[in-house]
Amino acid sequence: MSQPDTDTRTSWQTRPPRRRALVARVVQFAGLFDMWAAFAKPRHGRTMVLEFMPTAGLLTARVSMLVGGALLIYLGAGLRRGNQRAWQVAMTVVGLGFLLQVGRTPGAALVSIALCALLVAARHEFRSPSGRTGRVRAFAVGAGFLATGFALGFLEIATRHHRLAPGSGPADWAVHAALGVFGVTGPVRFASPFAAHMVDWTTGAFGLLAAGTTIVLLLRPGTRCPDRTVTDEAGLHALLARHGGKDSLSYFALRHDKSLLWAANGSAVIAYRVINGVSLASGDPIGPESAWPDAIGAWLADCAAHGWTPAVLGCGNAAGKAFRKHGLDVVELGDEAVLDVGGFSLQGRPMRGVRQAVNRMQRAGYTCSVDRQRDLPAAVLADAVLAADRLRDGAVERGFSMALSRIGEPGDGECLLVICRDAEARIRGVLQFVPWGDDGLSLDLMRGDREAGNGLTELMVVAAVEAAPAFGVRRVSLNFAVLRSVFARADELGAGPVLRMWHRLLRLASRAWQIESLYRANAKYQPEWHPRYLCFPTARDLPRIAVGVLSAESFLPHPRRSALVPLPAPSRTPATADH
């Protein structure tokens, strides 16, 4: 059964457990200490094993301590999230640091021993699972850098063979290059000290690069490949049929790249995607509000178990309150433009621009057809799919929270397609609306020929709204306007200096992401504005979440799925009976 809203056992803890946080902080301070020790001069009488180390090795030890300190600082973030691999790497770095410090700075070596003991004592705090695929790739990349350093070192020695001390052959060259990537001087002796240093620096640099990249790749967060069974799909469609009318984004849970996490009794589900260590959900949970706490608690528990940062993009007011009760912070992200079909009219001065654009396109011979996808002949649907692909602006399919990222699939028969043709019957524009319950539509795909006349989009939107009553549609959701209130209030009399400065910054950002133009394009239809919210744990998580959101929406490149650590989805059995 669903847990009550006041159940704190499923709330997100904005701070990690004290013991884990203490270990992470100590590791980061130890990293700072190592970086200081790398530049500290050893005192007289403390050379111990240092005097037996070759000069190149001494130099590499100093640099390695510096890199190791930086890595410990980097590892602190993973330790805070309870990452098991971060703990393993931290133990390795601390152990290597002890070997490097025991000869130069015994005090730093004692710190390494104490830190190692602390990590061992707190090992049960770090249980976030790791995947095997990530380890294989990380070590493969590290081996590649080692091989490159060896090859370049061998080549450098070969090109300077006439400046080598007599008695060394290709076998010695290979040994020297191989030892060099680990920071140890080999058997080859050079006539020129400069040549010896160049070989040492080349091989040593690639050795450090191999170690650093391997560790960074080992710590990269894994993802969860969507593993949706036939039962999952049936349960999701059943919930959409009963509760899909509550949120205009519910239908987008059917995206193929979203995973599903069900409430224990299958009465509600959250659709999400894991990217760059962020478990990113979009819209409201699907199901009755009484079942939301159980689904949210299960999702947050899954995030905590894997060390992922939870975030919700574009949820409504009721869902925002539910997520806030579970420990997440909530801020307004923007507004969704919703048209009331019954009250929509092209008459009046506010609609003058839209009315003129529609009339201009109609006089040029443009016409629109509006049909459910299931009612279209196969040939017409195929032409629309080809036209939508041809009219796409760029090779990347953008969208995540408010895009289906497909058109023409058999399972989407309820989608509404607006096909615009010119006077010669050529397809010049395509709109796709997905169902929003039984009486609503939500804009999904908008494609138009840039060479068509100005007003193509207005003609298609108006055609969809005017045809909506015939399909039993009373409301139509258009695009989402990020931070709409800033632009709207900046146009009002008495806008303050802070608001005007914020408005100028957003206008600069609009040059890259069309924030203002999207707001203006929606505002011309005189819609109702429904606020949407972003939910997140703490302000320090916002940079990571921003990168995850931009990657999910395809504004930033993100790693290929094969390069990430695939993790199985939690076993949940969705209920198919009515609740």
Short descriptors:
alpha+beta, 17 helices, eleven-stranded mixed sheet, disordered N terminus, 11 strands, 3 domains, 46% helix, single chain, Aminopeptidase, elongated, 14% strand, 579 residues, disordered C terminus
Polypeptide structure, described:
- This protein has 579 residues and is an alpha+beta fold.
- 46% of the residues lie in helices and 14% in strands.
- It has helices at residues 18-39, 55-80, 84-104, 106-121, 132-159, 170-180, 193-218, 230-243, 292-306, 317-325, 352-363, 378-390, 456-467, 484-490, 497-513, 515-523, 542-552, and strands spanning 259-262, 269-275, 278-282, 309-315, 329-340, 367-372, 416-421, 427-435, 440-448, 475-482, 528-536.
- Strands 1-2-3-4-11-5-10-9-8-7-6 form an eleven-stranded mixed sheet, sandwiched between helices.
- A hairpin with a 5-residue loop joins β7 (416-421) and β8.
- α11 crosses α13.
- The protein is elongated.
- The relative contact order is 0.11.
Please compute the radius of gyration using only Cα atoms: 30 Å
| Count of all domains | 3
Q: How far do the termini sit from each other?
A: 11 Å
Extract low-pLDDT stretches.
1-9, 44-59, 561-565, 573-579
* Helix-residue proportion: 40-55%
Written as H for each helix and E for each strand, in order along the chain, the element string is: HHHHHHHHEEEHEHEHEHEEEHEHHHEH
Coarse morphology: elongated
- Going across the biggest sheet, name each strand in turn: 1-2-3-4-11-5-10-9-8-7-6
The residue-averaged pLDDT reads 80
